[in-house]
Amino acid sequence: MSLRPSTVILPYRRRHEGGRATWVRAEQLGFPTAYTHDHPSWRSFRDGPWSGAVPTLTAAAAATERLRLGTLVTSVKPRSRIAA
Questions:
Q1: Which residue blocks in 1-84 are alpha helix, DSSP H?
Q2: Residue at 61 is within a domain
């Protein structure tokens, strides 16, 4: 069995502020998979910009060719509505 390390990219950078370049760089470095979080869990990021996982991964998919993408944490509750 061979290990294939992945990376985590936090979605605090906007696409035009280096966010796109970060995902492209992960692919260039040879990471097979990159993950992101859907909500801020670090105090240092709580007051700054933070993008949702789905828009972030959509932009990452458009910017990369081979990188597999995923979420480590996804907040389902704020997005779900139960019809009565």
A1: 19-28, 53-63
A2: yes
User: What's the mean pLDDT in 3-11?
Assistant: 88
Token pair 């998919």 is found at 61
What total of structural domains would you count in the chain?
Answer: 1
Q: How far apart are CA 53 and CA 60, in angstroms?
A: 10
Let me know if residue 20 belongs to a domain: yes
Range of the domain at 73: 7-79
Crossing angle of the two packed helices 19-28 and 53-63, in degrees rounded to 10: 60
CA dihedral 21, 23, 4, 36 (to 10 degrees): 140
pTM of the model as a whole: 0.75
